């Protein structure tokens, strides 16, 4: 099926959508992105994703080619045109096409940003078998750059991390820096010990997950104890349970880290409950 995608103001069949070979997203990974999930044909936490996008753009001195209100309408139009019930919307904004390759940023007056959005239909997204089975992860060195709080399209090392996990026969990898877990290749990481939820505190070491913010809010509202601090792989292996969060995975339990099973090696009650609460509340607030 040919999708309808959005490129710089136009809705086009994916086969007709093009971006220049001089685009700085292509040549320099000079761009930012967002992934927003769709459940029941509605957007989950659009406001959070839009706010983080604005922050990513401003940290990189990049202009948004559209207002956030217009962006909401583009998201909705793509959901409608592609008849998405469950799935994802990918959005990318780059520093545009200066017509040549140069390290210096182009003058934004002469080089408008490039904006691209496309949908990914994922029937059954909310009913993932991984929620019942749990994920197995390995730990790998975190050798990414120091501004992981900006959601840039520099995803080579996270892709390599996924491949390391695949080669090891597991589902994903958790990054470790200075002996402490930062986050997963494309998600935030949590452990649970004695009923307390522990996840790394916010800094430029990790992406400030939109799902993380919502899940921690729901956890606190449900009187669960939350501690925001870094933890080691050894502490994680001794935890009662673990889980990850992201816009595409929601909340997924982790049942094994570097070959060590957590608790009884099956999804834990805290992760399972948080997934239910997150899906219920997010569906209610979807736009
Ligand atoms: N990834 N940390 C990293 C490194 C991520 O790439 C992501 C999201 C998250 C979770 O953020 P959020 O809850 O806002 O999705 C944390 C997206 C889903 C992706 O790259 O596909």
Key features of this structure:
about 290 residues, D-amino Acid Aminotransferase, Chain A, domain 2, 2 domains, nine-stranded mixed sheet, six-stranded antiparallel sheet, globular
- Helix percentage range: 25-40%
Count of DSSP helices?
A: 8
- Mean pLDDT equals 97
Instruction: Indicate the CATH class of the largest domain.
Output: Alpha Beta
Bound molecules: N-(5'-phosphopyridoxyl)-D-alanine
The run of helices and strands is EEHEEHHEEHEHEEEEHEHEEEH
User: What is the rounded Rg?
Assistant: 19 Å
Domain unit count: 2
Number of strands: 15
What is the distance, rounded to the nearest whole angstrom, between the alpha carbons of the first and last residues? Answer: 26 Å
* Class by SSE composition: alpha+beta
CATH superfamily heading of the largest domain: D-amino Acid Aminotransferase, subunit A, domain 2
Strand content: 25-35%
**CATH fold group of the largest domain:** D-amino Acid Aminotransferase, Chain A, domain 2
Low-confidence stretches are none
């Amino acid at each position: 099926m040919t999708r309808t995608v959005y490129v710089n103001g136009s809705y086009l069949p994916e086969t007709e959508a093009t971006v220049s070979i001089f685009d700085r997203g292509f040549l320099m990974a000079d761009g930012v992105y967002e992934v927003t999930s769709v459940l029941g044909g509605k957007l989950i936490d659009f406001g959070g994703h839009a706010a983080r996008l604005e922050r990513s753009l401003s940290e990189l001195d990049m202009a948004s080619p559209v207002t956030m209100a217009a962006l909401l309408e583009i998201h909705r139009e793509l959901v409608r045109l592609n008849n998405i019930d469950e799935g994802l919307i990918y959005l990318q904004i780059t520093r545009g096409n200066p017509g040549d390759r140069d390290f210096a940023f182009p003058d934004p007056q002469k080089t408008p940003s490039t904006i691209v959005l496309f949908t990914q239909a994922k029937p059954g997204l909310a009913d993932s078998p991984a929620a019942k089975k749990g994920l197995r992860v390995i730990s790998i060195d975190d050798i990414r750059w120091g501004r992981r709080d900006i959601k840039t399209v520099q995803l080579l090392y996270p892709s390599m991390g996924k491949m390391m996990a695949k080669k090891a026969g597991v589902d994903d990898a958790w990054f470790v820096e200075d002996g402490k877990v930062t986050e997963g290749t494309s998600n935030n990481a949590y452990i649970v010990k004695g009923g307390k939820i522990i996840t790394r505190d916010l800094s430029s070491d990790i992406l400030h997950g939109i799902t993380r913010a919502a899940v921690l809010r729901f956890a606190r509202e449900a009187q669960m104890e939350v501690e925001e601090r870094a933890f080691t792989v050894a502490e994680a292996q001794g935890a009662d349970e673990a889980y990850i969060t992201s816009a595409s995975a929601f909340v997924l339990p982790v049942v094994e880290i570097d070959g060590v099973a957590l608790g009884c090696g099956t999804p834990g009650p805290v992760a399972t409950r948080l997934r239910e609460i997150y899906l219920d509340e997010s569906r209610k607030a979807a736009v």
